[in-house]
């Protein structure tokens, strides 16, 4: 969102309450959207727990032994496809041709829906799937400004653009107070990124021993 604002876009923010165990991220999303001046922030309820299949939407344990090789159990089946479909619907209502998503294909957990091939294919589909696209009134573009950046580079870019990282949340398995576990893949990648960027991570972790 900070990148979109830098590039002079008016921003509408979209988040999803999909049954994730780390639902505290929705509070963080609201804080960030407000701090960056979103014109509107919508939280859409979708119950992906009815399908399960992921440690984030079922009772499977979140891995904490180190960054996983291959596609880990924290992968939520078709999540970004679902999210982008909702974003596409709202974009058509708004008359917008630009959708931003913060996927990353370098410092990530191997998720197939974070790759350039996926977002490029979705963009092609989006322009075949909407009334606005078929009538030639707009051409949807999926923007992925973070996709080829390391976690370190993302953090440095955020700092340059004035992102208040105290408002953010990354952990897959926070405690009841919303504190990050410090050991899941997402925490490890975040902490490594801050270390490499030479910046202090301002959020609170349950454990500092990782």
Q: CATH superfamily membership, which one?
A: HUPs
Approximately how much helix is present in the residues?
Answer: 25-40%
- The CATH architecture is 3-Layer(aba) Sandwich
Gyration radius, rounded: 17 Å
Q: How far from one another are the termini?
A: 30 Å
The CATH class:
Alpha Beta
User: Structural class, from secondary structure content?
Assistant: mainly alpha
Number of strands: 4
CATH topology: Rossmann fold
Overall geometric form? globular
Largest sheet descriptor: 2 strands, parallel
Q: Overall mean pLDDT score?
A: 93
How much strand?
A: 5-15%
Low-confidence stretches: none
Architecture blueprint of SSEs:
Blueprint: H1 2-6, E1 12-17, H2 25-35, E2 40-45, H3 79-94, E3 98-100, H4 116-129, H5 131-134, E4 141-143, H6 151-160, H7 185-197
Parallel strand pairs: 1-2, 3-4
Helix pairs in contact: 6-7
Question: What is the compact description of this entry?
Answer:
By secondary structure, the protein is mostly helical. It is 35% helix and 9% strand.
């Amino acid at each position: 969102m900070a990148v979109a604002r830098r590039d002079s876009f008016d921003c509408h923010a979209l988040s999803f309450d999909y049954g994730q165990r780390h639902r505290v991220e929705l509070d963080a999303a609201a804080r960030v959207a407000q701090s960056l001046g979103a014109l509107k922030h919508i939280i859409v309820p979708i119950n992906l727990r009815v399908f399960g299949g992921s440690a984030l939407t079922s009772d499977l344990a979140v891995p904490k032994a180190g960054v996983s090789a291959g596609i880990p159990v924290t992968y939520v089946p078709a999540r970004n496809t679902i999210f982008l479909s909702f974003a596409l619907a709202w974009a058509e209502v708004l008359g917008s041709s630009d959708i931003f998503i913060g996927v990353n294909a370098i410092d990530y957990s191997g998720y197939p829906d974070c790759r350039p091939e996926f977002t490029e294919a979705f963009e092609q589909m989006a322009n075949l799937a909407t009334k606005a696209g078929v009538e030639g009134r707009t051409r949807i573009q999926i923007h992925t400004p973070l996709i080829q950046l390391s976690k370190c580079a993302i953090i440095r870019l955020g700092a340059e653009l004035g992102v208040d990282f105290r408002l953010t949340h990354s952990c897959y398995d926070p405690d009841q107070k919303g504190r990050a576990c410090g050991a899941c893949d997402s925490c490890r990648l975040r902490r490594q990124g801050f270390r490499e960027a030479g910046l202090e991570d301002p959020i609170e972790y349950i454990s500092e021993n990782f």
